[in-house]
Amino acid sequence: MGTVADVTRLLLVDDDALVRAGLALMLGGSDELEVVAEASNGREAVARVREGDVDVVLMDLRMPVMDGIDATAEIVALPSAPRVLVLTTFDADDYVVRALAAGAHGFLLKDTPPAQIVEAIATVISGEPALSPAITRRLIEQVTDGSGDGREARAAELVASLTDRERDVARAIGRGASNAEIASELHLSLATVKAHISHLFTKLDAVNRVQVAITMHDAGLL
Predict the structure, then answer these.
(1) Which CATH number applies to 8-130: 3.40.50.2300, 3.30.70.330, 3.50.50.60, 1.20.120.450?
(2) CATH 3.40.50.2300 domain span(s) along the chain
(3) What's residue 3's pLDDT?
């Protein structure tokens, strides 16, 4: 991720031109970030990501033509997909839950201070989620409410492929632990934790930590 100069390239997606202009103004002053494109709906966002040179997408959810949930699902399925940070007015509402289940790497409230937005972007670029442990637990509860036997059986099948250590890491992810916390708890290096998480994404058919946690929950391991 990122250019040779370690500048993170952003795509701003919102149907409100004033919101996009405000974000571009706020973030454009950072030496670490470059706004390379804007889009007014999800369809435009997917098309722009396909062109390449985007590291992080700041994604609105409620938009015409294609909403941010469907756009997120299409983007994270692309080869070398960028990170997706959802922008929302409401904390952990149904749209946010669905976007994270679709593969978004975190979410931000639209009134988040610029410095915290920059920090969240750096967080997801590093492979961590832009989610607090408390929010992670709430999201898992909402997404898995009323899960059926089919989901539970599928989750059990996926989890059966994990090593004991990978299960330990997956449980820690389900509790909302950061990479550093997992490393400390399991006496592993950060590099080893990241390697385990990469394996978990592959084995559990997940693109973010929320999806890992959902699978562990459905398998009865959280």
Answers:
(1) 3.40.50.2300
(2) 8-130, 140-218
(3) 44
Q: Which residues of the chain have pLDDT under 70?
A: 1-5, 90-93, 132-149, 222
Cα separations (Å) of 134 from 48, 57, 87, 147, 183?
Answer: 33, 24, 18, 21, 20
Please state which architecture CATH assigns to domain 140-218.
3-Layer(aba) Sandwich (3.40)
Nearest to 71 by CA among 35, 41, 107: 41
Would the pTM count as exceeding 0.70?
yes
What is the predicted pLDDT for the residue at 4?
41
